[in-house]
Amino acid sequence: MNSTDTTAPAGDARRGRRASGGADARRAARIGGHQTQLTYIKRNIPLYEVLSEEGLTLIEANAERVLEEIGIDFRDDAEALSMWTDAGADVKGERVHFPKGLVRGLIKTAPRQFTQHARNPARSVEVGGNNTVYAPVYGPPFIRNLDDGRRYATIEDFRNFVKLAYTAPSIHHSGGTVCEPVDIPVAKRHLDMVYSHIRYSDKPFMGSVTAPERARDSVTMAKMVFGDDFVDQNCVLINLINANSPLVFDGTMLGALKVYARAGQATVISPFILSGAMSAVTVVGTLTQILAEASAGMAFAQLCRPGAPVVFGTFASSISMQSGAPTFGTPEPAHVLFGAAQLARRLGVPFRSGGSLCGSKLPDAQAAHESANTLWPTLLAGVNFCLHAAGWLEGGLASGYEKFIIDADQLSMFQRMSQGIDYSENGQALDAIREVGPGSHFLGCAHTQANFENAFWRSIVADNNSFEQWRDDGSKDAAIRANAIWKRQLQDYVAPDLDPGIDEALQAFIANRKAVLPDGVS
Amino acid sequence: MNSTDTTAPAGDARRGRRASGGADARRAARIGGHQTQLTYIKRNIPLYEVLSEEGLTLIEANAERVLEEIGIDFRDDAEALSMWTDAGADVKGERVHFPKGLVRGLIKTAPRQFTQHARNPARSVEVGGNNTVYAPVYGPPFIRNLDDGRRYATIEDFRNFVKLAYTAPSIHHSGGTVCEPVDIPVAKRHLDMVYSHIRYSDKPFMGSVTAPERARDSVTMAKMVFGDDFVDQNCVLINLINANSPLVFDGTMLGALKVYARAGQATVISPFILSGAMSAVTVVGTLTQILAEASAGMAFAQLCRPGAPVVFGTFASSISMQSGAPTFGTPEPAHVLFGAAQLARRLGVPFRSGGSLCGSKLPDAQAAHESANTLWPTLLAGVNFCLHAAGWLEGGLASGYEKFIIDADQLSMFQRMSQGIDYSENGQALDAIREVGPGSHFLGCAHTQANFENAFWRSIVADNNSFEQWRDDGSKDAAIRANAIWKRQLQDYVAPDLDPGIDEALQAFIANRKAVLPDGVS
Hints:
homodimer, seven-stranded mixed sheet, 20 strands, 14% strand
């Protein structure tokens, strides 16, 4: 593997041309009026809450019992154990028992909301409060599209998904491992991934968590873009720390957590739960465990650096009790999602969950229903940071090109839905009702003419033509139309400007690191 | 067209055999344990409400202004106009202006909730309150399936959809015009449709509204099944009366409305709205008009017979402002649905809306997303009667066989979701968390073993197998799997018992009516 993986593509030469100005306008025009970049969602509709006050109190009390009586393992990290001893926990071997209230008390130093800065300030996002940030799928080793079917992902796919997320107005974040570039050695991969996010997008992004030194590389590269002092005082990386459920944090994740928290960067502490395997088969039991695990992880981040931004994470689905296979889009995980969001609000920290999760191998009706059954709770529960918002297929094993386009279209639908109700005089439209009167139509009335351009959300994927026109257009399904859309978006893609000095410094850093890192597969 | 359309199929002979008992058990076994018939939804999770108290008051005040200042046309029905004059309205020509409070006052005699009786009492449904009743698609002249593509519907298709709705555990109602049997003359069609609902299902069903005499035939046939007195004192038919929006009720619909209301049968008063054409392009403007129209229709039903069951109906979607085509699954109609449900609750009447609406021609990802974007609001808004819950394709032009199966599967998901949270000791699962402890798994623990059978909802459509197994099974998408399911369900279908005397009487009535009705196309 050589360093050409990190070389900016031939299009680099474009920078000079685009520096002359007008690129943004041209890009906007090319993408089309309804594809104007949207800022993160500032929700203006009510939340939906499924747990009662009594239910919440019960779960919180049970989680305290789990923390105190059962405890959580912090494995392969002696420093973490000693930090917990110093904080007043009861440590026996690698098992940490937390006196009642200790964990909740520590979390009080965590911010209720924080800004993750993007290198383009217009793309910075607010994580917490009434806000929702959509980020792409994270982690799949495979990709699927209509042209290639399913195959291992490469760095080229990785760049493509970064470009597609950059293009999609409703995807507010560049994400992290949008797919695993398996054509690059594991120990070097993170460098190319972080570089791609910086080079091909100007939206905020995620750092590597697969080893503490990869987390350190991520912070170093972020500092080259944002400056050392800025990074020390601001969040520019958000990072996914999974609990090893049930009730374990392992050394790898703890190592990455410590690097990021001490650098003042955000950590998403996410129990990864398939109920029936990593948690009990009930909603309340699963929520109890999630609250215990996420709280312990967030408290530990506060031990590393009080005030470090943390996010209460929840990845929860179920397994088929018949086959053991993970299932998605089912009702029980939706209840867990709604409930965990309530628990996070009561803790006073931002919440991560949701996404376009599905078990389907294809971007078919199964994929869409399952995705919708998680995306609806994502919006209505008040998820603040939504990983896997677009592109997830096959239980997270494949990043789908067409799926990405279909999901992103739905995200823009949800963003519009989040905007609430217009009660203004124009919204009331009494004059229009009066003008039209009984038995006529509103197509040409003054009110319709004044509002038609932005009255309704528009899908870029849906075909609403007549049957005959649709048939004459080739009887295409949504996946076939999405195939044409991602190809056009990649073709039309223009990279955002990046200071050439920063770019060169990043590439030099990467080359130096690659020279000393192994080429092995782990 | 001859009367064989209404002849019970060869399977009639089975009745003797099945009368010996055990048929229910055999049928249940054949359909599978998770296919046990479900009663209607008794929602045990909170509602989602999008309109504020101030917003609701504003819309109600504006609707009163529309009723008083603009008025509503009651066309081609002199009796209706004279009834409104007697009730204190200001009638000018066919335009009725309603003094403030008149309409709301009249609606007070309508029941908040009522039972629609099925010929099998176990299938009777409660319409109103915390209940949701799912009924099939209504109205399409075409059908689509993977075998035939798209073609005109026949009475055979009609029977098939009745049978599929009878088989689906999560479809609580047999519906009405599940497709238009265009192979039967228009003037005779209603007889075959009502007969099919009675003969091939034991779930509640709908009457004809396309002419007053067809409504009368529907009532007559219902009386042959339920008895004259029972029908006079109980609701056994629910019937769809569309307003001719904006602000018009036409003579056909008024004629049917009068027949049903006077017979004590339920009418669903439904503005049929495509915003931008039949209403203003705004949510609040559309809700104002819907409230005015639905209220006026429900009040008129109370003039016909105080206490007659009525349902506040809302069919609302939008049009593409670019092409004029109807669109579905968009955010604005979801807001209208949530808002109209709130307005209905404040009026104290049951609410009808929602469904598996979509513009897609195929049961693809577009169809699924659009359907989900209406089915989610259907549950969370607290819709009481949901027409079009399964089978809708192509803006209502086609009833889809595969779509029906995929939708029905989702309905069972929503039914499970509606059941709320189990806070019992078993739900809390603290013993399970203690038994398993950190770093193990829940697959074999006692709690999982005790709960695994019913812990999680199970899809009959989704494929959750590994990629390799799915590929070896033929790489089928959801539509292909659904195709096999509906064929198996039709093959396994066994008709419910029907008293032979009633059956003969119905067939004689139909033959007599057909002998005098014309064979024309209108």
